Fold:
Amino acid sequence: MRFPKLFERLATLAPLPPEEWVKAEAVAKEQSLAKRELFMRPGDAADRFAVVLQGVFRGVRVSPRGGESIKAFRAEGELIGAYAEMLQRLPSMTAIEALEPSHVLVFQTQDFQQLEQGHVCWERLARRVAEQHFVLKERREQEFLELSAEERLVKFWEEHPHLKGRIPQRDVAAYLGITEVALSRIMSRRRKRAE
Amino acid sequence: MRFPKLFERLATLAPLPPEEWVKAEAVAKEQSLAKRELFMRPGDAADRFAVVLQGVFRGVRVSPRGGESIKAFRAEGELIGAYAEMLQRLPSMTAIEALEPSHVLVFQTQDFQQLEQGHVCWERLARRVAEQHFVLKERREQEFLELSAEERLVKFWEEHPHLKGRIPQRDVAAYLGITEVALSRIMSRRRKRAE
DNA sequence: ACCTGGGCTTGACCTGGGTTAAGGCGGAGG
DNA sequence: CCTCCGCCTTAACCCAGGTCAAGCCCAGGT
Structure:
């Protein structure tokens, strides 16, 4: 077992026999990425995903008119991949970029489907992952519906303290749905009020 | 089989043997709701869900400070229930209200778990449902990130033509994340531009 | 026919965030 | 050491949408 820690983490989502984990490791490949390197680019087939072993990634959606917005940040222990496109069998519309020199464990979805056919535990895990993702997106929806940009900012840092100092300001802004200018203003406003 | 149409619809998501469907119908109960009646209210246990046979529902989240925002509308063939709260085993934070005299088919989650243990097809269906929900929420996230209120409005009617005339304006506004005043203005602006 | 109330519209005014453009600042490379 | 570049901040101006309040329209009830 090359990654016992990862195994423990995944096993908290759904029961996962160690021997199945060994099979999974057999089909996985490690990959290193430099800062700014892309794990996936728009147009790529959404036929693989990875677990972050080290580093931070941003999922960027480039809109038709060129606007960039950020769907999520992902750090150690989390999954990266164009999940929605994978489910819909569409090419990726997302760029996934390393914000630091990073290290990931890559799976081909095809190999993973093999695993699923071998043992139900993988199916159950996939379900948990889908449910987890759903809960997170719904929380985000809620934030857009009833919180101001400033409130979203506060909540962001409450929920992602481990990202402090690892992601540029402008990306936080693109995640919150505002410009970096607006974010800067919000922060100076708060500084003033705080003193 | 009391609801063959419903069966066909669900079976498109995942293979579903008819005899399993019969078992499901055995534990389901029909329920009728008057206009404005609540299928679920905030604070209720999130231990049941339903399929809409007839009518339209709105999922309302009442925020701590009293603001109302709308998470989704659901019409014939769709699921209603406090899904996120069910997954997290939390009491419902959502009110689900009939906008018309309606008719639904109710399942207790407990009974459904029984079905899951009897046959994997239900587990697979649950996974598909989770994935489906995720894709929808991600699409909505995208809309908040890169579309103006007016663009969201246009898209809303493109994607939900069957709701035309069935839901009050103010609810559309609450779904888009704006006030009914703003929505009214947007509409008159478009009327002017169109002539 | 008359009230009443709910839902939509309109207007006046305010505020938050977008846009553009001009600095400031700190770190990497010459 | 200086310069350049990437990143952040600040300022000026504009516009979308929020808020409050007054009206309008119409369906239902009397």
The longest strand of chain A covers residues 48-54. Helices of chain A lie at 4-11, 18-27, 83-87, 109-118, 120-146, 149-159, 169-176, 180-194. Residues 148-150, 178-179, 181-182, 185-186 of chain A lie near DNA strand C (CB under 10 Å from a C1').
